[in-house]
Inverse folding.
């Protein structure tokens, strides 16, 4: 397996951090994370899949090592995220791409695969999110995203991550330690918090249209796979079943032991991705 590489790419007026895996000569796979996460969430899957793909795991602006917004009310939106995604693909000179997105990353993929990248996205994995999101799911996410913890120690931050991201599933201690390592930043007083701009929550409050993307979904022509955590409060079964009847009519896999959202870190999920992406 290949080691990862850290790259910084100019993208639509921002500096975008991307974790690269594998040989750039191989077919490209973009793996895009959820609302308050970073591209490092996909370390296990990206490393495994880098034997066949050139895997790009960006940090969305406002997260991880990417730039923060100049105007949060404008910049934290699918339109601007799409601008940065197109700039990233152009930087790497990619005419075709496979896309796997968790939660927000899945909806960014939907808006692009049903719009500006309609002819360039060949495969689309939507991980535990749908074109509409229940208010209770939005409320739960907004409650912790907009109020990030400030901890005295990394051990406290890891414990917070384990509690708030318990729906990611019963992952290993090594997984949670790596999650803590790649989710943390120091505050000005030397304490520890999560590595994102708290103002990213504005996407949920100022861009309500980003939470209803049935129009884009119905326009998707890429081969599509839909994953759902069996206890998800973000992708209800009724929405998942409606998705199988509309637009790209994806196969649906319900993953036991998860809520929102499956971490895609186990051999089971990586095997699903490998099989789907290979066709």
């Amino acid at each position: 397996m290949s080691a990862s590489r850290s790259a910084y790419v100019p993208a639509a007026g921002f500096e975008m951090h991307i974790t690269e895996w594998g040989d750039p000569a191989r077919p490209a796979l973009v793996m895009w994370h959820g609302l308050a996460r970073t591209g490092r969430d996909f370390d296990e899957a990206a490393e495994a899949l880098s034997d066949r793909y050139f895997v790009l795991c960006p940090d969305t602006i406002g997260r991880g090592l990417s730039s923060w917004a100049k105007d949060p009310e404008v910049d934290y939106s699918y339109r601007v995220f799409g601008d940065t995604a197109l700039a990233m693909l152009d930087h790497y000179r990619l005419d075709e791409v496979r896309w796997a997105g968790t939660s927000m990353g899945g909806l960014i993929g939907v808006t692009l695969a049903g719009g500006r990248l309609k002819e360039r996205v060949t495969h689309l994995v939507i991980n535990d999110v749908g074109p509409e999101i229940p208010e209770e799911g939005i409320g739960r996410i907004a409650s912790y995203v907009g109020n990030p913890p400030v901890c005295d120690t990394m051990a406290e931050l890891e414990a917070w991550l384990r509690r708030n991201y318990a729906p990611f599933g019963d992952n290993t201690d090594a997984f949670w330690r790596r999650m803590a390592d790649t989710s943390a930043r120091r505050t000005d007083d030397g304490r520890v918090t999560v590595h994102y701009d708290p103002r990213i929550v504005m996407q949920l409050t100022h861009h309500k249209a980003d939470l209803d993307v049935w129009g884009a979904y119905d326009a998707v022509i890429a081969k599509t796979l839909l994953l759902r955590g069996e206890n998800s409060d973000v992708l209800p079964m009724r929405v998942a079943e409606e998705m199988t009847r509309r637009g790209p009519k994806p196969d649906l896999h319900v993953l036991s032991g998860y809520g929102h959202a499956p971490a895609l870190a186990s051999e089971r999920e990586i095997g699903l991705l490998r099989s789907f992406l290979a066709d």
Observations:
- The domain at 4-133+212-278 is CATH 3.40.50.1820 (Rossmann fold).
- The radius of gyration is 17 Å.
